[in-house]
Amino acid sequence: MVSALKTLIVCALLSALAAAPAAAREMSAADQVKTMGRGVNVLGYDPLWKDPAQARFQLRHFKTIKDGGFDTVRVNLHAFEHMDADNRLDPAWLKTLDAVVQAALAQKLTVILDEHDFGPCGEDPAACKPRLTAFWRQIGERYRAAPDRVVFELLNEPNKGLDDAVWNGWVAELLPVVRATNPTRNVIVGPAFWNNIAHLDALQLPAQDRHLIATVHYYLPMEFTHQGASWNPSTPKTGVTWGTEAERQRMKTDFDGVQAWAKAHDRPILLGEFGAYDKGDMASRAAYTAAAARQAEARGWAWAYWQFDSDFIAYDIKKDAWVEPIHKALVPR
Ligand code: BGC
């Protein structure tokens, strides 16, 4: 009798163990953020998407990134330029995307697919909405069986016409499109006003969806991080430095505000962009970059530096070498 009972218990334990791997495949949002760790934005403005033969970024750079101490790439996708009149994504573009995703996964990087058409979406939300919806329907379908190290980000920096209220409505409509094919994949969503920390309080995430990661971008003070940037005419003055005690304290206070929101809403955080433009002096840029990365890490957030190539660069593709002060600031050695 006792041994029959023992056999029963052993059988029950064994079948519970057999069921475990299936359950383990589902990664919690908190674990995803832990796995993401340190990241970098890639490929947003690379000729690769129009003509792979013209690529600046080579697939071997994913190994450079991994070896450089990073765990994640946030792939910035301007997909609207690659859609036909029926909002179907160009098969050649999708093939390039597949190659990018595979090469990044092969290096054991987490790959964020970030829809980055924030310009057209902010300017003309009505024209953007069917395209963004069609994008997520197709990408959701295509990557439904991808490993959970592929993460989706609904839209970079909703802005202008996509104000808090409009964006909250879109989040509620876009998530079911993704969930139809990817019920438990972690999805990144940030607040309106260019993923501004001051708009986190207005962001409404569906309470029952626990596979969401909240994202913010941090470029404050803009006078420092965007000095002399042609696309930001409100910060023309150059020679602005950073690093006083008051400036460091402001960053901490800002990050504490985000952390309070994260705790209150039980959502993990990705600092999806931060950095300082090339026209600032390098010592200040490195100090700012290091401070933001360490402050994010101290709060348990994942982060992704803006960006690998193009501007704010962390890696000099021509020289095939890291920009040392920025790299050291990001990954201390
Ligand atoms: C934009 C870039 C810009 C950066 C900093 C990104 O989201 O895609 O064009 O350089 O933000 O302003």
Short description:
The chain is an alpha/beta fold and 333 residues long. It has helices at 2-24, 29-36, 61-67, 91-106, 118-123, 125-142, 164-179, 192-195, 222-225, 245-265, 282-298, 324-330; strands at 38-42, 72-77, 110-115, 150-153, 187-189, 212-218, 269-274, 302-305, 315-316, 321-322.
Account of the protein in words:
This protein has a single domain, classed as TIM Barrel (Alpha-Beta Barrel), CATH 3.20.20.80. The chain is of the alpha/beta class and 333 residues long. It is built from 12 helices and 10 strands. It has helices at 2-24, 29-36, 61-67, 91-106, 118-123, 125-142, 164-179, 192-195, 222-225, 245-265, 282-298, 324-330; strands at 38-42, 72-77, 110-115, 150-153, 187-189, 212-218, 269-274, 302-305, 315-316, 321-322. The protein has an 8-stranded parallel β-barrel with strand order 1-2-3-4-5-6-7-8, surrounded by 5 helices. Helix 6 runs parallel beside helix 7 (164-179), helix 10 (245-265) packs parallel to helix 11 and helix 11 (282-298) packs parallel to helix 12 (324-330). The termini are far apart. Bound molecules: beta-D-glucopyranose.
List the helices and strands and how they pair.
Elements: H1 2-24, H2 29-36, E1 38-42, H3 61-67, E2 72-77, H4 91-106, E3 110-115, H5 118-123, H6 125-142, E4 150-153, H7 164-179, E5 187-189, H8 192-195, E6 212-218, H9 222-225, H10 245-265, E7 269-274, H11 282-298, E8 302-305, E9 315-316, E10 321-322, H12 324-330
Parallel strand pairs: 1-2, 1-8, 2-3, 3-4, 4-5, 5-6, 6-7, 7-8
Antiparallel strand pairs: 9-10
Helix pairs in contact: 6-7, 10-11, 11-12
The structure holds beta-D-glucopyranose.
Residues 44, 116, 156-157, 273, 306, 311 line the site of beta-D-glucopyranose.
